[in-house]
Write a structure and sequence with these properties.
The chain is α/β, with parallel strands linked by helices and 364 residues long. The chain has eleven helices and 15 strands. A hairpin with a 3-residue loop joins strand 9 and strand 10.
Amino acid sequence: MNTHSRRNALKTMALGSSLALVNPLQLLARSKKEKIGVALVGLGYYSTDLLAPALQQTEHCYLAGIVTGTPSKAVAWKEKYQLPEKNIYNYENFDSIADNPDIDVVYVVLPPSMHAEYTIRAANAGKHVWCEKPMAVTSKECQDMIDACEKNKVQLTIGYRLQHEPNTQEYRSIVRQNKLGKVNYVECAAGYRENRTDHWKQKKEMGGGVIYDMGVYSIQGARMGTNMEPIAVVSAKAISTRPEIYQDGLADVVEAKLEFPGGVHADIKTSFAENINFLTIDCAEGDIEMQPYSAYAGVKGKSPLGEINHPYQVPWQQANQMDDDALAILEDKAPLVPGEEGLRDIKIVEAILKSAKSGRRVTI
């Protein structure tokens, strides 16, 4: 199956049931559009090296604008992507984006501590919001984001690229359809050696620490691997292996045992200290093994049913995710990964941190 065919097949699965989030006047205006205009907010590595190149490959959306606090980046991006001056914003004039019909979606690619503010401001400007993971720092912020988007009748989608990814969708289908019997146990780990020392990931006030960044991948693996929601954190520990870098209670290694209904457990680990990336799902009739589980490309696995391997090249994941989310807007359908999905993970993050601090079981 070629790239476009696979993407179209994914869309059929991804769009889900209808959900009217756009008011009739907005819908009438957007029905005339064939492509969704996207403004990237925050031009760090992920926007520069992955999202912007991916937007050159998308079929249903395109790079329409940018928001940056760095004038030199504004100049460089304007020239590279032929962006009109009127579609270039900074953080002071951001709210005037409301008056720009070229921009339908604001994609928030900022440190987690800024996600709530810019999601809410974008929603109040009447723009749909795509927000990178982690959704926010607290579950209250997540709920405020959801409420703002509902109030303004715009979609809120969280950038969980793996939920759009064909290898992930295949193992999830095996679990959902009980093809290997009951899930008994899950183990998932996601991490890499983070060598930066002065990034937002090392700053508590900006939403730093490994549990927010890579931790949500491990949590997602446990949730998707069991096809259930955890009911408790049985135990957890949060460790700073480099206290000179990870200070103020930040951890660069976090481990937790999650309890699911029916006595099913999942052991998860996330790390900024080592390269780890796998998901093992112990089913009654054999294991599903994904390794790497959450890479930008090369995700693959196996089970007694055979190999799981749908190859593609970077940045196909990001292009596919954004095309799926753009189609959800164009066709007035529920997005595959709504804000509620991000909220679930942050509630689990909070419970893990509470358990690690108290040394006790924490009900979710």
